[in-house]
Design a protein that fits this description.
By secondary structure, this protein is mainly α. The chain has seven helices and two strands. Helices cover 75% and strands 2% of the residues. Strand 1 and strand 2 form a beta hairpin. 34% of the residues are buried.
């Protein structure tokens, strides 16, 4: 395949995946037994698919463009988009890097799981130092903590709450994207790579 054709396919594929990520970012689902301000969406899935198809940089670019576009309707003073980009970039970057060195189903699974682990780990300082301090401008810290205590009364601090709720939630969210990618990447591969690709 010519270099021009590869570049065209890369741009078209990333554009399509970015559009899907933007749509999925609006489809937030509240989760029972978790504070109502924590919602589930699958907008990281297209970033993961992009990282598998075109490499880690593509996944990071999809995360970046998705959140830049979402700034227009931001309700978090752009803090939510910054955090979403950081987490998505870590997830797709790590997964894509691992898969780039082992382009097998096992490599994709390993990369996805490691990406989810890293994303969950980064979510702790991201929420503690970036997202929640912004929330405190509108919702006092003790009110945020109370939302967690309403579910598990033994929560003593925001740090403990993030470790018990947010970190596992982020990890599971990543795993769900990994599982979904295992089912849809192969059928999408001809569209992303072209029928004449390996």
């Amino acid at each position: 395949m010519s270099t021009t054709k590869k570049k065209t396919r890369f741009i078209a594929g990333c554009g399509m995946l970015t559009a899907a990520a933007i749509v999925l970012q609006y489809l937030e689902v509240p989760i029972p037994f978790i504070p109502s301000f924590i919602k589930l969406d699958f907008s990281d899935l297209p970033e993961l698919l992009g990282a598998f198809a075109y490499g880690p940089v593509a996944g990071i670019l999809i995360a970046l463009v998705k959140n830049l576009i979402h700034l227009a309707v931001s309700q978090s003073g752009y803090i939510g988009e910054l955090s979403n980009f950081l987490l998505g970039a870590v997830f797709a970057g790590v997964a894509g890097l691992v898969y780039q060195h082992n382009k097998t189903m096992k490599g994709a699974l390993l990369g996805g799981v490691l990406g989810a682990v890293c994303m969950a780990a980064v979510s702790f300082p991201s929420n503690l130092f970036i997202v929640y301090p912004f929330y405190y401008n509108f919702m006092p810290k003790d009110v945020v903590l109370q939302a967690y205590q309403d579910i598990v009364p033994s929560m003593k601090s925001i740090e403990q709450s993030l470790l018990v709720f947010n970190v596992p939630f982020t990890f599971i969210k990543g795993l769900l994207c990994v599982v979904a990618s295992m089912f849809i990447y192969k059928p999408l591969s001809p569209l992303l790579h072209g029928k004449d690709s390996d």
